[in-house]
Amino acid sequence: MLRPWQVSLSERLDAASATPVYLQIIQALIRDIERGRLKSGEFLPSSRDLATALGVNRKTVVLAYEDLIAQGWLDSAGTRGTIVSSSLPEPVRNARTPKAAHPAESEAQYWFAPPPARPLALPSGPGLKLDEGAPDGRLFPADPLARAYRASALKASSDNRLQYRDPRGSPALRDSVAAMLRSQRGLNVRTENVCITRGSQHSIFLASQVLLNPGDTAVVEELTYEPAVAAFRARGAKIAPVGLDADGIDVDAVEAVCRRHAVKAVFVTPHHQFPTTVALRPERRLRLLELARQFGFAIIEDDYDHEFHFGGQPLLPMAAYAPEHVIYAGSLSKLALPALRIGYVAAPVAVIEALAHIVSLVDGMGNTLTEDAAAELMENGELRRHARKVRNVYAARRSQFAEALAETLGEVVDYSIPDGGLAFWLRFHRVADLDKIEAQAPGLGLRFATSRSFMARDDAPRGLRVGFASLNPGEARAAIRALKSALD
Fold it and tell me: pLDDT tens digit string along 197-206?
């Protein structure tokens, strides 16, 4: 019997693929049916003919046909052969639609919100990365972490806590974080004032969900943490950038925005401003809090690296003396390991409950074992001992990094040695030099966040934020030499 359908599956089959050949045949036939190339009632080649044409074993084709018959795509016509099922609807796609060679190359045929223009911050890749102030994960001892995981797993199992749990987080870790905030940062908080998150960015995103509606205004500094701006924009908020100087955010500019718009949130990093590292002075903190009282907005205080201060005592967080106006976001990522993915929010109880409802929608289970392990490290003093050790290491690396900058780029950039935090802010004498470095860096095997990634408005001053803590002295000097070589 003549079969009008022409066999043309050979280009789709890949014997080296992890997908079995019979499944590849099934997928190819289904695609041809969907696109109208194979129509209802049409005969397919015999299993022997198709096997010969494709260069495969006949049993492979028989298996594919039987599977398609069972699924309802094909019907058996007895001795006459195999036909496309007559009960299928009209083809959903035109036969001229280009065929994807692989599922990864196919395009979605439905609406979805496209990603913003900002690229994903992917940590991996070739070459040397100058981060924006990450710790050195190589310094954290693996053995105490492994013991903490084991202890937390055994205890959670014996207490029957390996089930779905409170979206506010592990009770043990919430207790430990609340105790740390009371004793070390002056916050008058209890366990019910704390919600555990997957890091600072998760905390900021959650805060945006409960504070902002589409069309609301959020104030940020003209140089700021870009993922926070992205979170506010994803919520539909209008972004109002204001200036900053050596004393921090321009509070007069904040007041001017409040008089023009209904401001719902002001995002600040007052301890070590991101990216410039300057500290928000006490008089401006008090003025900002007074504006919050006057205009009824919330302050999102991102205290992302409070633990690392190298000169004198750090200022208390704003949440320590005005908790009713501040949503306080912190993280254990800098103190311990970014891979632990543990952050926290401290806020009034009603706000914590609102945050917990958002968590329950996107991360209801959380990570009990990791959170309990982190609580174990806090309770047994391991985290405190690690903090003391790495603070000394990072202080030395800060000095060494400053020396290398002076020797290699001293005639090109201005910078101040930061009192705290894990990064320098480099200001270039000539913007052309910054442009050249950013253009040449990929070819030199150097990766870093570009100057424009920190800018909340086009006329903001440009600079580079470069972390020193995650690099040993040799790596740091190599990175700085690579920056210089871009100019040579």
Answer: 999 999 999 9
Residue 446 — pLDDT band, cuts 50, 70, 90?
A: confident
Contact indicator for 430, 462 with CB cutoff of 8 Å: no
pTM for the structure as a whole = 0.82
Asked if 47 and 3 touch (Cβ cutoff 8 Å), the reply is no
Q: List, as one string, the DSSP characters of 242-265.
A: E-EETTEE-HHHHHHHHHHS-EEE
Spatial neighbors of 118 by CB under 8 A, at least 6 apart, are 226, 230, 453
Residue with tokens 């949503």: 327
CATH code for the domain in which residue 419 is found: 3.90.1150.10
Residues 409 and 435 in one domain: yes
Given a cut of 70, is residue 92 above it in pLDDT?
A: no
Instruction: Residue 286: name the closest of 256, 312, 313, 248 by CA.
Output: 248
In a domain, 120, yes or no: no
Do 170 and 51 lie in a common domain? no
What is the per-residue pLDDT for 336? 79
The Cα 167–Cα 194 span in angstroms is 11
H/E stretch holding 221 reads strand 217-221
Tokens of 218: 């959020």
In a domain, 445, yes or no: yes
| d(C-alpha 232, C-alpha 204), whole Å | 9
Which among 382, 333, 384, 386 has a CA at the least distance from the CA of 147? 382
pLDDT of the residue at 160 = 84
Average pLDDT over residues 316-322: 93
Q: Is residue 201 part of a domain?
A: yes
Cβ–Cβ under 8 Å, residues 67 and 109 = no
Distance of CA 73 to CAs 5, 8, 425, Å? 16, 19, 63
Reply yes or no on whether the pLDDT at 352 is more than 90: yes
Asked if residue 417 and residue 380 are part of one domain, the reply reads no
Q: Are 424 and 405 in contact (CB under 8 A)?
A: yes
> Which structural domain, as residue segments, surrounds residue 465?
128-135+387-485
Evaluate if residue 120 carries a pLDDT over 80: no
From 256, 212, 258, select the one nearest 238 (Cα to Cα). Answer: 212
Residues comprising the chain, all counted: 488
User: Which of 269, 241, 244, 234 has the alpha carbon at shortest distance from 118?
Assistant: 234
Nearest-angstrom CA–CA distance, 437 and 479 = 12
Per residue in 470-484, pLDDT (tens digit) is: 999 999 999 999 999
Does residue 254 or residue 80 have the better pLDDT?
254
Cβ distance 243 to 276 under 8 Å? no
Question: Based on the domain organization, do 371 and 400 belong to the same domain?
Answer: no
Mean pLDDT of 167-182: 94
Task: Please give the pLDDT value at position 79.
Answer: 85
